[in-house]
Amino acid sequence: MKIAIIGGGSAYAPGLLQAFAADANAFPGAELALMDIAADELAIVHRLGSRLLEGSGLRLSATTDRLRALDGADFVLTTFREGGLRARHLDERVPLAFGLVGQETIGPGGFFFAMRTLPVMRAICDELERYAPHATIVNYTNPTQIVAEAVTRFTRVRCVSICDQSDDDRVHLAAALGLSPTAIELGSVGLNHATWSTTCTIEGEDGVARLTQSCDRLLASGHVSPRVKRQVALTRTYERVPNSYLQYYYERDATFAEAKAAPRTRAEAISDELPGLYRHFAEQALAPHARLQAGRGGSVFGDFAVRVLRTLATGERTRLTLNVRNGSTLPDFDPERVVEVPCDLHEGRITPVPQERFPRDTVGLLRMLADYQAAAADAIWGADHVALDRALAANPLVLSLALARSLLRARADAARLDGYEHPP
After folding, report:
1. For 164-171, which contacts have Cβ atoms below 8 Å and span 24 or more sequence positions?
2. Looking at the predicted structure, is the pLDDT value of residue 300 above 70?
3. What does DSSP assign to residue 11?
4. In which band, very low, low, confident or very high, does the pLDDT at 299 lie, cut at 50, 70 and 90?
């Protein structure tokens, strides 16, 4: 078995390799083929990964040549950031000048990111059809929903998209309540970064009721982040737990004000952290007993990605929440839309579990998001520059053709002024 990891030099990769080491018996003799264009970072991750995988029976390779990594692959985990953090900084900064939140997957920032990501995904799919026609893509590259829409509709490559945001929300809600993450069970459906809970229990009790009862206390706490406070307040209002990203729509003014007041973009903050992380990786690669004590994404991303790959590779039976073509799973959405729902997996087959309709006071935004993301995939994948402004205008945070055109011009101008010759 060969598993190609595109973006294998990222700061997420060591956590992923640690998860592979812990579950190595599911991949006997497999080759993990790290690929990244950042040669120095890739070399560091490869050295550390070789130590983490000692005695596992797994083989680790590294290359800056994408074709070499993809050739003969059975699975391809895509987890790359085209344009790097420098481009993400512009994605986040430019919308703020127009009164819109700057964020890597939401609003104009997510659209700009998709404009860089989809051409690379298209090239990867073309290469897989030639060099590894039976491979399955497990996509973790953002913006996940737009990527999944494009690959699912415009290629013959089998693609499953994953996201750990619901798990991340569960961890933060538990921390706010002073509980272990295992005390909360949270099941959600909808679109990527736009889900609502279908089940929520906290220590075996009704989780929505528990959060509602705790709402005033949490809102008054100085130890709870504004993000979690908004999520809990929305839970009390809607009597379901929202994905934390939904606050960008339902608390639009507050989230914009927070981003505008921040001294740095999130991309700048991460950039400041990375040198220390790679120093840690390099030190542990030389340590007598390599131990991963820091990294991007923690273990949530790595554990979930490996669990999905293990299930697909071994054919075991389980239920996982994935981003897949809707069919008739969510009756409020078109069959060809990609939705985030629980799926039953067995012998490599993925069967989405049918769900109920959404309440009328929440389904409208989700339908708008679904159609916007499909329009974005259409315009960007087809390189239809005339359709780009119409697609961005359909975004629920934009809803203006003139504003969409101004945003696209401003993003392109910012790249030129930054001296960074890269498409938005």
Report:
1. 164/297, 164/300, 164/301, 164/304, 165/192, 165/193, 165/243, 165/244, 165/245, 166/195, 166/243, 166/321, 167/300, 167/304, 168/244, 168/300, 169/231, 169/241, 169/243, 169/244, 171/300
2. no
3. T
4. very low
| Residues 254 and 230: beta-carbon distance below 8 Å | yes
Q: 3-class DSSP state for residue 45? A: helix
Tokens describing residue 7:
């973006």
C-alpha distance from residue 292 to each of 7, 89, 186, 224, 281 (Å) = 19, 28, 28, 28, 7
In the chain the domains, ranked by start, together with CATH numbers, are 2-161 (3.40.50.720)
233 half-sphere exposure, CB direction, 13 A CA radius: 15
Cβ atoms of 75 and 309 within 8 Å: the answer is yes
pLDDT band at 23 (very low <50, low <70, confident <90, very high): very high
Per the structure block, which two tokens stand in for 197? 């809970």
The DSSP symbol for 354 reads P
- Dig out the tokens for 356 from the structure: 């109920």
Residue 184 near residue 174 (C-beta atoms within 8 A):
yes
72 and 41 Cβ atoms separated by less than 8 Å? no
Q: How many Å is the Cα radius of gyration of the chain? A: 21
Tell me the three state secondary structure of residue 197.
Answer: strand
Structure tokens at 401: 């053709």
For residue 421, name the pLDDT band (cuts at 50, 70, 90). Answer: low
| Positive/negative CA dihedral, 106, 111, 114, 116 | negative
Strands 338-346 and 2-6, bridge-based pairing = unpaired
What is the pTM (predicted TM-score) of this model? 0.94
Q: Are 33 and 318 in contact (CB under 8 A)?
A: no
